[in-house]
Amino acid sequence: MATCIFRSSVAASLQTFWEMRCALGRKGESDRKILSYLDRFLMSELKPGKPITADLAERWFKSMEHLNAGTRLNRMSIMRQFCAYLSNFDPRTCVIHQSFLPRRNRPAPHIYSPQEMNLILDAAGKIGPEGSLRPMLIYTIIGLLYSTGLRIGEALNLLLADVDIEGELLTIRDTKFKKSRYVPLSPSTARQLAYFLHQREVAGSPTVSTAPVFISPSGRAYRPGRICTIFLEILRDVGLRGPKGARGPRIHDLRHSFAVNRLAQWYRQGENINAKLPLLATYLGHSSLVGTETYLHATAELLELSNIRFKNHFAVPYLKRSKGGTMAQNNGIGLPIRRFFEDHLVAQRGMSSNTVLSYRDTFKLFLQFAVERCRKPCVDLAIDDLSDRLVRQFLEHLDRGRKNGTGTRNVRLAAIHAFFKYLAATDPRYIAQCQAILAIPFKRHARHVLGYLEKEEVQHIFRHIDLRASQGRRDNALLRLLYNSGARAQEIVDLNVNHLRFSRPYCVLIHGKGQRERTCPLWDETIQAIKATIEDRHLRLSDSVPLFINARGERLTRYGLRYLIAQRVAAATGTCPSLSTRKITPHTFRHTTAMHLLQSGVDLNMIRSWLGHSSIETTNLYVEIDLDMKQKTLQASEKLLPKISKRGPSWRRDPSILEWLRSL
């Protein structure tokens, strides 16, 4: 065991925890710094023989309020893992639930355009001191990061032995997660790197194989922080970033730009994006596609390229029409619940009205159940009455008494988790009770295969819409927009006329789930159909009025949309009997859009942005139902199998064996 570098009363445990993480492949230096900060805090706050409690953890969290969210999250996460490790040896140690960690709000990446890169590289070549190697070094580093997508640390850790100019190849060693990989270079990047190495040699820098490629005047490799500072100064000089302290483009956005530009190039070349994404993940050094997802930002260019693929495969031709109760307030649960709804959900987190209503319904059911079990009026209920045992009984009541499905049960539990997470943050007296409730897991359940429509079925539905009637023109526009955008039912009915862009490039602004907005490109045929129904109502394209209305002139509801789809599907079942074999809802059109985007060759990450999913794992469900793609995969794999002999088994071909068997 190495010499202990910590000094608090749990120094030995900190040392073994750090050594364990190093042995598992973690970078020891960053962990050592965070654990040193924690060690200094525990030296003054934790007495010998005492355990780490929830109160102590909360004081550690509050001592970091002056730091940015990312730094706080890293330090809190290390302490949470250390407490979980220490609890194996000292059961008195508090176990910190992951929900207490703050969310990481990643800034939107800046995708550098070729024009911006020209400005940056020109400015890099002019920095001082004049006549030194530094301008050429900064110019080469920036160009290398933009053309290869390397992390800044990977570029600065390059040694001369890692560069193969003739083979146009870099060897990236011992990078994130202790991985190594090869990175091919483009011919132009290899030429620029060769020119820099020549200038480096002329300047008298060491040429031994173990010398750093990007060497500082002190003879060591540049530190990432120094290069980042120089890069920010260049951005300010060319007008791409504000004064110090203001947010803006970063050097890491060069990596984002590489990933997005590579994806756009594959779209333009007509490549199979889903087959190419694993190659991009390997090139960038990611362990899975989930890591690559962060870098694939849905730019306007990528959305337009995706829209072109979608339209070329599945666009439906446009046929022009022919002529012719507030909770009671008390000293128990009333005030916390009211503040949770009015202050936390609405004022602080900005939850949508649908989410607030869902939470309201959960607490109406939960409190009614608590009144029955505790045998006291609702006004007399206290926080202590809402125990983890009561929550488990309530969930069992949902399963057996109300016959709710697992999905509904998990939605109710999520609302209860949200309240007790809020309560723990506002009233530390209940932290232990809140932790017990937050530890109640969500229930796993089987996922049903998602249904979708084939291209011919979609066309049958549109063929049976009468465009001579205004109601038919409205339904035609409604279904086209639903199919083109893949929007949720609530997103469609919430649209106003001014949410659409009627000049090229056509698109619609969708206010989606989780208060997220996204822009979805539209086909010419979809815009024509929408303009036709707007003309029927004598509206201007800039009016802030509902895009779709019902027979009473009011905004169409989700239930009205479901009814209209049922009517149009019923009309088409005469010529397409397969439509009558399953239930078709607005969400079926959303599944259909996702599947047809996938079959058009659009990659999963772009489909995630198109549909407004928060994670690519949700989008990945659509791959499971594409039978055609599975059949093609099966046919391709059949060619790899050896042919089966038609001669029969050897014992049938040998008469002597048969005679011997008959004689037994």
What is the general shape? globular
Measured distance between first and last alpha carbons: 72 Å
Spatial strand arrangement across the major sheet: 1-2-3
Report the sheet with the most strands, covering strand number, pairing sense and barrel closure: 3 strands, antiparallel
Please report the number of helical segments.
29
Number of strands: 6
Helix content: 40-55%
The computed structural class is: mainly alpha
In round numbers, the mean pLDDT is 86
- Rounded to an integer in angstroms, the radius of gyration calculated over CA atoms is 31 Å
The fraction of residues assigned to DSSP E strands is under 5%
Would you kindly provide a written description of the structure presented here, covering whatever features stand out?
The protein has helices at 11-23, 28-45, 54-62, 69-86, 114-124, 134-148, 152-156, 187-202, 224-237, 253-269, 273-284, 289-293, 300-314, 334-348, 353-374, 388-401, 406-426, 431-438, 455-463, 470-485, 489-493, 524-536, 558-572, 586-599, 604-611, 616-619, 627-638, 650-653, 655-662; strands at residues 163-164, 169-172, 181-184, 500-501, 507-511, 517-521. Helices cover 54% and strands 3% of the residues. The radius of gyration is 31 Å and the shape is globular. With 664 residues, the chain is mostly helical. The chain contains 29 helices and six strands. Residues 324-331 have low confidence and may be disordered. A hairpin with an 8-residue loop joins strand 2 (169-172) and strand 3 (181-184). Strands 1-2-3 form a three-stranded antiparallel beta sheet.
